[in-house]
Amino acid sequence: MDSNISYTPEGVVAISYNTLLSSPLSLKASIEHAFGSDSRSLGIIIVRDIPPVYLTYRERLLKLAYHFANLDETTREKHVHAESRYR
């Protein structure tokens, strides 16, 4: 097993941010294990070793998501992407 890929005791796949950037194709099997149709697939993946700046990005995104969720429905509907079933 790649040393940049690990599993939590609960079976959640954990991958390295650096591997995700430098060698994403090497993570194919792990991503399939995380999101596949197997009964052991949990639908979640942990990305380890994320640069500290991502904390700032996350906080900003959560604030924007809150504001977006509180917009009127007409405004939110302008951003629906029907082809992807994204609402």
Descriptive overview:
- The protein is α+β, with helices and mostly antiparallel strands and 87 residues long.
- The chain has two domains: 50 residues, no CATH class; 37 residues, no CATH class.
- The chain contains four helices and three strands.
- It has a three-stranded mixed sheet.
- The model has no long low-confidence stretch (mean pLDDT 90).
In short:
With 87 residues, the protein is an alpha+beta fold. The chain is built from 4 helices and 3 strands.
Strand order of the largest sheet: 1-2-3
Q: Count helical runs.
A: 4
Class by alpha and beta content: alpha+beta
| DSSP, total strands | 3
Which residues form runs of ≥5 with pLDDT under 50? none
Q: If you average the pLDDT, what whole number results?
A: 90
What is the chain-wise order of helices and strands?
EEHHEHH
Task: Draw up the topology in text.
Layout: E1 5-7, E2 13-16, H1 17-22, H2 28-35, E3 45-48, H3 53-69, H4 73-77
Parallel strand pairs: 2-3
Antiparallel strand pairs: 1-2
Which characteristics define this entry?
2 domains; about 90 residues; 3 strands; alpha+beta; three-stranded mixed β-sheet
